[in-house]
Amino acid sequence: MIEKELLEKVKNQILEPKDPLFQTGFRDLDLLLASIEKSSIITIGARPAMGKTSFAISVMLKLLEQNKKCLFFSLDMSKSYFIKRIIPPLAEIDFSRLNNNTELNEKEKEKISSAFDKLSKFNLTIIDGVQKIEGIKEKIEQEKPEIVFIDYLQLIDTPVKKQRNDAIEDIMRSLKDIAKDNNCIIFVLSQLSRAIESRCDKRPMLCDLRDSGAIETISDAVLFIYRDEYYNKDIIENRGKTEIIAAKNKYGSSYTFELLFRASIMKFLEPIRVYDF
């Protein structure tokens, strides 16, 4: 027989109201992850230029505004350059104007200064130069964050003599153990296979996760980013339109929803819906 204490515990978990661990600021994503638990691994996959990093930053900024403690592993860029990536969506200033040292007007300078002031108050730690899973584990144990972002999976060092598939599986299992041991949620960004480019419908599927099926197996949720305007630039209706495809969701339904991507400031936004008025 099942222990009565266990039955009572599970019943209470179901019947008692449970506040979500966080709000991402995106309504459909919050509904999708409403029952998310600590120690979860959420994989964000996309082909290059779809906006993986921008999406992660957009989510992270919403969490930081809720005083969540976040840790971002920037394996693809330096800490200083990553900060430059955060400022445009925070200040809503065109990235090209910042990056090309374009002369800024006074209003833009004020918005940038305000963004830096806001950033300085966030509970955010940025880590660059750490490529090994052991280093990631050590930093998480030291910082004790609530939410971790890793950009991106395929840049984590793997043993030279080990098959790539096996090495990625080991990394994913290690990340899951790290999440459990440190009671945190880990968002891990992942590249996708080039095989997508040879298909008529280039929307990602689970089989497109690059290097290992273990990414799908070990992840608690898998989200894909797809922007049709990348492939069909001449269609005006496509501009900014983004599909977030929940290909796997341990916590509930899997479905696709839309966001808007403002490429100039590298920020994802909620689309305006007719029924929002």
Write structural notes for this entry:
By secondary structure, the chain is an alpha/beta fold. The protein has one domain: P-loop containing nucleotide triphosphate hydrolases (Rossmann fold, 3-Layer(aba) Sandwich), CATH 3.40.50. It contains 9 helices and 9 strands. Strands 3-2-4-5-1-6-7-8-9 form a 9-stranded mixed β-sheet, with helices on both faces. Helix 8 links the parallel strand 4 and strand 5. Helix 3 crosses helix 4 and helix 4 packs across helix 6. The longest helix has 19 residues. The N and C termini lie far apart (53 Å). The model has no long low-confidence stretch (mean pLDDT 88).
CATH topology: Rossmann fold
String of helices and strands: HHEHEHHHEHEHEHEEEE
User: Going across the major beta sheet, what is the strand order?
Assistant: 3-2-4-5-1-6-7-8-9
Overall structural domain count? 1
The CATH architecture category equals 3-Layer(aba) Sandwich
The number of distinct β-strands equals: 9
The structure class reads alpha/beta
Task: Describe the oligomeric state of these chains in a short phrase.
Answer: single chain
Mean pLDDT: 88
Unreliable stretches:
none
Task: Report how far apart the termini are.
Answer: 53 Å
> Going by CATH, what is the homologous superfamily?
P-loop containing nucleotide triphosphate hydrolases
Radius of gyration: 20 Å
User: How helix-rich are the residues, as a percent range?
Assistant: 25-40%
Beta-strand percentage?
Answer: 15-25%
Q: What's the CATH class, please?
A: Alpha Beta
Let me know the largest β-sheet: 9 strands, mixed
Q: Which of globular, elongated, flat, extended, rod-shaped describes the shape? A: globular
Q: Helix count?
A: 9
